[in-house]
Task: structure prediction
Amino acid sequence: MTSLKPNSENTGRATFKPKERLKSKKKLDLLFKKGKAMNNFPVQVIYYLSEAVGESELQAAFSVPKRNFKLAVDRNRIKRQMKESYRKVKGELKTDLRNKKMSLLLMWVYKDKTKRNYKDIEHKIINSVNKLQNIVNETGGSDNL
Result:
């Protein structure tokens, strides 16, 4: 496994299309009921890994608690930073999922009570994606690993 780099060299053009966004209530319920959490302060990722039914998929959602940031402009900025960091490094993870015929649902939650600069958030997201990639590569395809 190679280390992820925050650029679009991984698999062509890095995008975050609407079909890659986790919006389904059923999938969100499944994620919160059966998913596992991984902390990498200030970012927590809740993930659910399963065998793909048909085409493998990688879907993600992002959350910043209103309790920690009262102003929507602050919450939206942090979510934009998290989405951009994730968008840059998800390519290799997506390729591994496709090769293993697996699906991965992700919920990224910002846990800090203070705003951080983009580089800090990017570094933590890269670390988390690397850990997720290791989990995917270690699994042989059993449900919810």
